[in-house]
UniProtKB/TrEMBL annotation:
Gene3D superfamilies: P-loop containing nucleotide triphosphate hydrolases. This is Cell division ATP-binding protein FtsE. It is a peripheral membrane protein. Part of the ABC transporter FtsEX involved in cellular division. Important for assembly or stability of the septal ring. GO terms for biological process: cell division. The gene is ftsE. It comes from the Bacteria.
Length: 237
């Protein structure tokens, strides 16, 4: 984190895939720690592409990105994993490992980070309990419902206590009740200090988190009365 408290700053960022037109253009904004952001926009507006920039799965075609005080464009590739570990990701399609139990899926980030087996069990059980899955610890993803898989994916994304959680359409596969519960989980996490960024085209979701801030993408550009999301973005009405 930098002195002025930002965690991410985009300066005039653009993204094109291959030689096609830009799918994201002129993005200038700052994300501040501990806030809850929604990223909205019609299908194809560029939400997933922007999230991929945020969790460092994609480099922009132009512009500057500063993350946790580091220039994310010019830093040595070897530092990428260190930066990525500070970001938890909930993918639209979960990306759970089907032959591993819920426990082992959630334990994965800790094992990758080199935690000892003796130290894993407690935190993994606690977090599965927190997402309401203490009775499904041994279950493999194909035997879980969509909402249960989603909660395993959330538990895996937050087990290593990331500074920022990024979630792509996390309620796309669940009923309204479960959507409400998942939002409560994200809010609880946010109250513990995690910056949350949720991409969704479901405008009802925005009302479920009154303190949230909105980033609205329109054909690859941030549409806000000021022309871009800035310092900080306005609150939901
Ligand atoms: N890997 C890729 N190669 C080429 N074009 C891509 C790629 N990924 C996305 N696009 C294009 O970029 C644009 C933005 O796509 P993106 O998936 O970011 O939008 P989105 O807002 O997340 O859409 P949805 O809500 O439907 O998931 C679309 O025109 C899409 O076709």
């Amino acid at each position: 984190m930098t002195a002025d408290g930002e965690i991410i700053h985009f300066d005039n960022v653009g993204l094109r895939y291959g030689t096609d037109r830009e799918v994201l253009s002129d993005l200038t904004f700052t994300l501040f720690p501990g806030r809850f952001y929604f990223l909205t926009g019609a299908s194809g507006a560029g939400k997933t592409s922007l999230l991929r920039l945020l969790y460092l799965a994609q480099r922009p075609s132009r512009g500057a990105i500063r993350m946790f005080g580091t220039d994310a464009i010019t830093m040595p590739r070897g530092r990428l994993p260190q930066l990525r570990r500070r970001i938890g990701v909930v993918f639209q399609d979960f990306r759970l490992i089907p032959h591993l139990s819920a426990f082992d899926n959630v334990a994965l980030p800790l094992r990758v980070a080199g935690h000892r087996e003796d130290d894993l069990a407690g935190p993994v059980r606690d977090i599965l309990d927190w997402v309401g899955l203490s009775d499904r610890i041994g279950a493999r993803p194909p035997t879980l419902s969509g909402g249960e898989q989603q909660r395993v994916a959330i538990a895996r994304a937050v087990i290593a206590r990331p500074a920022m959680l990024v979630a792509d359409e996390p309620t796309g596969n669940v009923d309204p009740d479960m959507a409400q519960k998942l939002m409560r989980l994200f809010e609880m996490l946010n109250r513990q200090g995690t910056t949350v960024v949720v991409a969704t085209h479901d405008l009802d979701l925005l009302r479920k988190v009154p303190e949230s801030l909105i980033m609205r993408l329109d054909r690859g550009r941030l549409s806000d009365p000021t022309g871009a999301l800035r310092y900080p973005p306005r609150k939901v009405q």
